[in-house]
Design a protein that fits this description.
Strand order of the largest sheet: 2-4-5-7-6
Distance between the termini: 25 Å
Largest sheet: 5 strands, mixed
Strand content: 25-35%
Shape: globular
Oligomer: single chain
Structural class: alpha+beta
Mean pLDDT: 88
Order of helices and strands: EHEEHEEHHEE
Number of helices: 4
Helix content: 25-40%
Number of strands: 7
Radius of gyration: 15 Å
Length: 154
C-alpha cells in the first residue's frame, strides 16, 4: 500500500482554478458557475488528488446540469472542518442509485447517454477517504444535486 505524501495545500486556489477551467465548457451549455470560495483555506492533502477531486465534482456538475441553470460551488471553513460542495440542477439522482453512486463502474440509467466509465465518483470517494474525510450526495427536485466533501482540520 502506497502512503500518500501529504502537505499543507491551499484548497481555495485549487477549487478556484478548477472552477475557472470549466467556465468555457459551462458557457457552451449556457450554464453559469457561481462560486463562494473562502480565501486561503488550507488542508493537509495531496495537491494532485485535490485537483482531481475538484475536477471530478465540477465536471459532473457541468455534464449533468440543465441548460440555462446555475452550478453553485462553495468552499468554507467551519470550526474544525472544511466543507467543499458542488450543487447543480438537472436530473435528480434516483434513491435506488444514491446507494451505488460511489461504486466503481456504476452508472445510473439516466446517465448512460453521457460519456464516461462510471469511475469518477468512485475515485472522488477514494480521494476523500484517503484524507480521512467524508463525501456525501443529496439529490431532490427542490434543491438539485449536491456533492459535499467534508475534511477535519487540526
Amino acid at each position: 500500500e502506497n502512503r500518500l505524501q501529504l502537505s499543507e495545500v491551499n484548497f481555495s486556489e485549487i477549487v478556484e482554478g478548477s472552477a475557472l477551467n470549466f467556465e468555457p465548457v459551462a458557457f457552451e451549455k449556457a450554464v453559469l458557475i457561481d462560486t463562494e470560495i473562502a480565501p486561503d483555506i488550507t488542508i493537509d492533502g495531496n495537491q494532485t488528488q485535490l485537483n482531481q477531486l475538484a475536477h471530478i465534482l465540477i465536471d459532473n456538475a457541468v455534464k449533468y446540469s440543465d441548460e440555462n441553470s446555475v452550478i453553485k460551488i462553495i468552499l468554507s471553513k467551519k470550526n474544525d472542518t472544511v466543507e467543499f460542495s458542488v450543487n447543480n440542477r438537472g436530473n435528480v439522482i434516483a434513491k435506488e442509485d444514491i446507494d451505488h453512486i460511489f461504486d466503481r463502474f456504476y452508472r445510473a440509467e439516466k446517465s448512460r447517454t453521457t460519456k464516461g466509465y462510471g469511475l469518477g465518483l468512485s475515485i472522488a470517494q477514494n480521494i476523500v477517504q484517503n484524507l480521512n474525510g467524508k463525501l456525501t450526495v443529496q439529490s431532490n427536485q427542490t434543491d438539485g444535486t449536491t456533492f459535499t466533501a467534508v475534511f477535519k482540520t487540526k
